[in-house]
Design goal:
By secondary structure, the protein is an alpha/beta fold. The protein has two domains: 2-132 and 291-306, Rossmann fold, CATH 3.40.50; 135-289, Glycogen Phosphorylase B (Rossmann fold), CATH 3.40.50. The chain has eleven helices and ten strands. Strand 4 (73-78), helix 3 (89-97) and strand 5 form a beta-alpha-beta unit. The chain starts with a strand and ends with a helix. The mean pLDDT is 94.
């Protein structure tokens, strides 16, 4: 059983800010990858996983390929679960092929909002597969700034927790205890603009490793972003909110930073000599449950049970 990850012919994957899609994602899972135009005669033993960054002009070709190859399983990867994507061409495509028997939905996040509706349409043809954790990416930095790094989008509707803390920080003397890294932007969607900065991918993890704490926000959907892995890679103590997918004993490792107790929580974090025991527990949990071998077994067991 061979897994083949299929990429868009149009999207410039070199411009992605992290390896949540494209060749980087495929390599992190240990999968071979190819491009849509090269996908012609399919071996019936091949399992096809479609990258979530497909251009609108590729949708018809992709749909026809699924229908014309009924003996192959096609896993259609989905990332953002938000209702905001309802009219996006890829999500409309997913809805359209949900009744095709060899089309499956692969979600990196637990199904919420629009993704939950799609999961219902695909019925049993759904699998949740979180991002892989790569132990080789871990960085152990001896000297760290005693600050909390805030990074990522400040969309108050999607990331209400991060936005709320950012507002508190920018209007308080506690600004001294924080560092804010602006979102680099999505240059792959508008290559004319380029990135706001190049602290992306491995450079982001290296930059993050210079801080003792990282603020984490699972968005309004409580989902497990790649940032949670990046926090562990960088050796940061997690601050803020954990994703719903973590068990309670792992959620308890996160230092609380509440808007309602912002000043006291901030001073407690910065003034107390926190050790890195919680970080080691988090790293162990991620390695045990999200290493590629574990995730690939989940995929193969699912495939075998579906045959």
């Amino acid at each position: 059983m061979d897994i083949l990850y299929v990429l868009s012919d149009i999207i410039n994957y070199n411009l992605l800010i992290c390896d949540d899609a494209g060749p980087g994602y495929a390599l992190s899972m240990g999968w071979k990858y190819t491009y849509l135009h090269k996908l012609k005669l399919l071996d019936t033993k091949s399992v096809i996983i479609i990258d979530n960054r497909m251009a609108v002009t590729e949708i018809d070709r992709l749909k026809n390929m699924i229908i014309e190859n009924p003996n192959n399983m096609f896993f259609l990867k989905i990332v953002d679960p938000y209702y905001d994507n309802t009219i996006h061409h890829y999500y409309r495509f997913l809805s359209g092929v949900s009744s095709v028997k060899n089309a499956y939905l692969l979600s990196v996040y637990e199904a919420q909002e629009l993704a939950a509706e799609l999961k219902y349409k695909f019925k049993h043809r759904y699998i949740h597969l979180p991002y892989p954790y790569l132990k080789g990416k871990e960085i152990n930095t001896a000297s760290k700034k005693n600050k909390i790094l805030i990074s990522g989008s400040l969309n108050k509707h999607i990331y209400p927790y991060r936005y709320g803390i950012w507002i508190k920080v920018t209007r308080s003397i506690t600004r001294l205890f924080f560092s804010i890294l602006k979102h680099p932007g999505y240059a792959e969607l508008n290559s004319d603009k380029g990135h706001l900065h190049m602290i992306i991918k491995d450079n982001f993890v290296k930059y993050l490793s210079t801080f003792k704490y990282m603020l984490l926000c699972p968005s309004r959907c409580g989902i497990e972003f790649l940032k949670f892995n990046e926090c562990a890679y960088a050796g940061c103590i997690p601050v803020g909110e954990a994703p719903d997918s973590y068990p309670q004993e792992i959620k308890q490792l996160f230092l609380p930073l509440r808007s309602s107790h912002f000043l006291s929580d901030t001073l407690k974090i910065i003034s107390k000599q926190h050790n890195f025991d919680n970080l080691l527990i988090l790293r162990h949990f991620l390695h045990q449950t999200r290493q590629p071998d574990v995730l690939n077994k989940v995929v193969k067991d699912f495939i075998n049970s579906s045959l």
